[in-house]
Amino acid sequence: MGLFILRRSGVMILTALCLTFIVFFLTNLFPNLEKLAKTQGNFRMSDEAVISWLTKEGYMQPLPVKYGQWLGVLPGWTLETEDGVTGRCIDGTADAATAADAPRFCGILQGDWGYSTVFKDDVSTIIATRLGLTGKLMFWVLVLMIPSALLVGVLAGMREGSVTDRTLSTFSIITTATPEYVSGVIFIAVFASSAVGLKWFKGTATSAMENANFENFFLPVLTISLYGMGYIARMTRASMTEVMTAQYIRTARLKGVSFPNIVLKHALRNALIAPFTVIMLQFPWLLNGVVIVETLFNYKGFGWTLVQAAGNNDIELLLAVSVVSVIVVLVTQLISDIGYVYLNPRIRIS
Amino acid sequence: MTEPTLDQKPVHWAAKMHAREYNEGKLSRREFLTRATSLGLTASAAYGLIGLPAPAQAQASAQDGGVLRVQMSVRPLKDPRTYDWSEMGNQTRGTLEYLVEYNSDGSFRGMLLESWEINEDATQYTLNLRQGVKWNNGDDFTAEDVVRNIERWCEKDAEGNSMAGRFATMIDESTGKAMDGAIEVVDDHTVRLNLPTSDISLIAGMSDYPAAIVHSTYQNDDFTQNVGTGPYLLTELEVGVKCTLERNTDHTWWGTEVYGGPYLDRIEYIDFGTDPSAWMAALESEEVDMLHESVGEFIEVLDGLGFVKSEIPTASTIVVRPNQLAEVNGMRPYADKRVRQAIQMAVDNAVCLELGYSNLGRPAENHHVAPMHPEYAELPPQQVDPAAAKALMEEAGMLDFEHELMSIDDDWRKNTCDAVAAQLRDAGFKVKRTVLPGSTFWNDWTKYPFSATNWNHRPLGVQIHALAYKSGEAWNEFGWENAEFDALLADALKLADADQRREVMAKMEALIQEEGVTVQPYWRSLYRHMREGLVGTDMHIAFEHHHYKWGFAA
């Protein structure tokens, strides 16, 4: 078991390395650097000014060197100018003595995630704040999505082919077939705008960042949960119908156990094994949905940060976002694998 | 208000003439007020001339205190002289003030300057600083501060310093800094600028958003720590998210005695991205009290939802112009004045406004000077007469010529050209429309034989004429070369006094119309929607936010 976790962690680090290198490579293509120079400096910069700016900021070094510096395995660049010394590990311009005292390495291995060029702040602070906000959104999504999905799935799977089954199945197919950018817009139009006139909720979740309540937070939560809910409900239904046709259920019925008891005591536990994996695998999908929903509802969390970082070629922020995403995806898969062992004694991890 | 005019001089004769016109019903009240105040009358004196009581000033009814939330994109800040978005100026305007304030009626009024004098040929500016202004760290605001800031503006080598362009007249080409002796300290509260050539646009330049006045301790690292003279402090700046200005209670602001205010305790700018539907959702969900700007189809929707609308006409416009030098099939179709006049005569500007820009503006008069320009001179209205236009075109022998009207592929510019083309066809001319994608349109925009270009608002009418109507200028897309006009323009550019300049401008405007230089159909307006109960928050002609005027109605 220990070895399994260790191997999974190894895979995770390797994936993170590969992915960040790809992101690093793409964001460091010259046209992207040129765009960065122009947004940071001035839109009417000449080509020479762009090169001089990039050189001054250390962007003109070879790609592997820059990547090594970002990781913290190579010493950060320094540049001596008339006014003093600038460098990756030095804030602003410092004199020679201060520069000598500055750490030589400053990459993620040293805990330095870098500086965001768009938000003018430390990447670690931005990621922490934004991830916290998305965590809040995710929590409420799970609170809404999992119980309702399981309920719908179990109810539908109890009696295959019944009216309840058909109705609930149709409902879950519709919700899972509607992407967030469609359902979100429909919800805003119906429940938040004067077009329909209901105005039950607010069409934007900006104030929910500080002070979330049912009125300003329900629509984004609903939009993300509905999409995942249909999928989980379908899986639960499939699993439930299979269990309900098993031999031991028939035996229980024959010996006269009441139907609610069969469902709750005999079927449910076995039927929930498959949905557990599906739920854990939903996490990466939720990250995906969060990008759309946060932009749509103007909720400034992790997904919104990704959009801003990508739109402005904010290299270090984008890299941090990729690292966090890789960790989220692989950790949830690890949990799902381990949890599976505990739920289903027939499976062993050796 | 005891004195009738801003500078204590006698009332201008033209103001009395306009008052007569108002009484005869030739002018609307609004039009009269614009003209009279631009002639130097105070608003209450202007009302007095037409026998109406001045309305109680909106400001007076603002209550003290309150938090105003405004939708606006929150941008990263940098050195003010390199600002490239008016939003940046709004984020710091509460703290870092300006020497001069530009107002929506086209007038300038002193902020940190109490007044200014400009000599006969606009080569010497005397700036009189306001007495008793203090920085919020307790320092006195003196001539030293003004000199330091103007020197900063003149540093041509500073990366991205756009103020250097506005102050180009006084920059020494060889050093890239202000010329020796150009900035002169007369006494503690007087600064004199000595220019080598005439330049009447410096006051306008001082009011523009990159011209924020900074303290000697100014730094770019943490904008919440900067010392300023203003009534508010920038307390929170989260780029792309939020920006908060809080009333500085430890600081006595000079303006309270002079202009009144500030009223609000706090102003919060909240970023709702670039999608106007998100702005609308924010206003509708009561997440904000006011928008920075309402655009396009949302203006009508927001009207329908019952929000308060503030409209301000600007001098942003479009010109649909022939190029007189352009050759088509070996001849120059638009070199003949009669052809150009015929085109102008066949086009009704009001129709262009309605079809091209959904009536979100005001009709213009084909001479590219707008009523809010200080030197605007009113000319008799032009006649729209398709029949006479056809006769004129026939006389020029060009009725069979097929005009090719080119435009960029976008919404309003394309629609306006379509409206022009349709009216030309109605008059009996042959017109072909060509729509070019935005990526290729600008490559040759000055050289197309017949096409449309949009022009931004500039505070002075002569600025646009100097850029685009003077012979041989790079942006002279009309291919118009007229020695008489150039001479008049050279005169006008030396007259700092708007009244004197207006006399010359009347001739220039008439000349542009007479020569049929261009169809310049309308002025675009800017709009802002807000909830009810706000005062002093009208849309500003250059997107500026004057925080000290803002408040909630008492």
Q: Could you write a compact summary of the structure shown?
A:
The complex is a heterodimer of chains A (350) and B (554). Chain A is mainly alpha-helical and 350 residues long.
Low-confidence stretches of chain B: none
What is the CATH top level name of the largest domain in chain A? Mainly Alpha
Roughly what percent helix of chain A? Answer: 55-70%
Residue share in β-strands of chain B: 15-25%
Percent of residues of chain A in beta strands?
Answer: under 5%
What is the fold-level CATH name, i.e. the topology of the largest domain in chain A?
A: MetI-like fold
Largest sheet of chain A: 3 strands, antiparallel
Largest interface: A-B, 24 and 21 residues
Give a short account of the largest sheet of chain B.
5 strands, mixed
Membrane topology (chain A): Multi-pass membrane protein
Transmembrane segments (chain A): 12-30, 137-158, 170-197, 217-234, 272-297, 317-343
Main location (chain A): membrane
Subcellular location (chain A): Cell membrane
Task: Describe this structure as you would to a colleague.
The complex is a heterodimer of chains A (350) and B (554). With 350 residues, chain A is mainly alpha-helical. Chain A folds into two domains: 2-110, no CATH class; 123-343, MetI-like (MetI-like fold). Chain A is 69% helix and 4% strand. Chain A contains 14 helices and five strands. In chain A, strands 1-2-3 form a three-stranded antiparallel beta sheet. In chain A, helix 8 crosses helix 12. The radius of gyration of chain A is 26 Å and the shape is elongated. The N and C termini of chain A lie close together (7 Å). Chain B is of the alpha+beta class and 554 residues long. Chain B has 18 helices and 22 strands. Chain B has helices spanning 13-23, 29-38, 43-49, 86-93, 143-153, 163-166, 202-207, 255-258, 276-284, 298-304, 337-346, 349-357, 386-395, 412-426, 438-441, 461-469, 483-492, 498-514; strands at 62-63, 67-71, 100-102, 108-110, 113-118, 124-129, 171-172, 177-178, 183-187, 190-194, 232-238, 242-247, 266-270, 290-291, 308-322, 361-363, 402-408, 430-436, 450-455, 522-530, 534-535, 551-553. Chain B has a five-stranded mixed beta sheet, sandwiched between helices. In chain B, a hairpin with a 5-residue loop joins strand 3 and strand 4. In chain B, helix 11 (337-346) packs antiparallel against helix 13 and helix 12 (349-357) packs across helix 14 (412-426). Chain B is globular. The two termini of chain B are 23 Å apart. Classes of the chains: A mainly alpha (350), B alpha+beta (554). The A-B interface holds A 41-43, 45, 49, 92, 118-121, 188, 192-194, 202-204, 206-207, 216, 295, 298, 300, 308 and B 76, 82, 84, 159-160, 221, 238-241, 270, 272-273, 278, 281-282, 284-287, 305.
